[in-house]
Write the structure tokens for this entry.
Amino acid sequence: MIPQTMHSIFAKPNHDEASRQNFVNDFRVHLASKVFPGNFPAYFGRVLPAFIKAQGREPKDRHEVRKVMTKDPYYQLWSAMQRNSQEMIWDSVIDAVERQLPDLLKKAKDLKGKGSLTLNPNVEVPKYHNAADIHLQPGAYHTDVAPDDLSAGAIYDRGTYIYSMGGLGAENDGLGRILQKFFHKQYPDKKIERVLDMGCTIGGSVSFWSTKEPGTEFHAIDVGAPCLRYGHARAKAVGANVHFSQQNAEKTNFLDASFDVVTSHILLHETSRQAIQNIFKECYRLLKPGGVMMHLDLPQAFGQNPLEGFLWEWEIYNNNEHFYGQLRELDTADVATKAGFDPAKFKIHQVASTWDDGQTPYSNENFTFPVYVAVK
Amino acid sequence: MPETQIRLPRVAKGKRPQFFDDPAVDQMMTFIIELSAEVSVLYDRVDTIERLLDSKGTISRTDIENYRAPDAVESERMARRDGYLKRVFRMHQNTTLPKAVKSKAKPAPKEKSKKRRK
């Protein structure tokens, strides 16, 4: 894996912690490259023929594939390994964060830099966020264990890096790089004075934007206080200028028509169907006329064959991504229209998962992210 | 760990899936994989000791704790771990391409986007 850049607020692992984290990373690489592919011959070699023999037809959708594939021993063993690898990410990272938390808290307090942090303890953590701990991160993004806690953010910074097997780049900000590049390619002449990033967690993406657009005012919101505290410290550590505030993207306190761009980087699939409708409505309210809404997210079920669709949904059932399921089938054009956008100005772009230096966040270089774009 | 140390949550909220008919098999998988990780950590530590002894002749525990593998060493370790993972988990890997299935059954259609509701 490309070594992760360890900025000044990073929870640096000691000798054995680093070794454990590296094992988990390499184990996941092994699973992705040597074990996961075996699901295809298992399906086509025995699961599908058995289904055809019994039913006289192929499975009609991913849900039917799920019923038979979850009984297959190859799939079961791979799933058990994959699930364990996910749990081990967090355990290996929490060791390093827990050991030096008092030191990290002090460092965050002493750090000098730009931007701001506004917390609001009255913000309720929505049900879609705390029904289960997303990606199995214990305590998720919102649990405070100490005064001015930032542990969830520190865990997230290293954990997501191992989760993506270093695929988000040395600065762990690949999604921001992809979307920033897409925006300028799409709108080469658009001036942006004010940008909002929704569901920013530790602000990796928006901090990248900020370092590239020093003349623009960046705001970033999330419901998770420890991630925002870490995000603010991390932004200072990497020289970004971002105003973080604790707010729910469904209803913010920003003024009408006050942003040129409202964006999110893989937020939508962590929220509910109603929340997505509310978020699109809020985007419409916040945008200036001619402003752009851009949400980058994970693939929908459309266009996938039943086996692909089933495998994509492993995370829903086994990695606490329970709310991804509703986005998989959502008519986002309809959501945008109901939010007030002109249907003619809404488009789903499929954006390549690479950025300028040719790095790619996932092993498949043909992988694309859907980006939901609407202009007000 | 001192008693005053802040303890972080270690278990994720949400039901842990069971993949095998016998839950003991799920638990055994965790034991085996965790043990594999610890052997790998131990191997890295031995490697650190050997490298430090090669260069310094005599070393302390602090020398070991302070050692961080340079990129070239980490690449060697990655290659070693790759071989290690292939050996330990050799009974469960398959990268052969799927064979096309010949059948007269009607193939499943790709999922289509739903029509927009009026």
About this structure: The helical segments of chain B are 23-56, 61-66, 71-88.
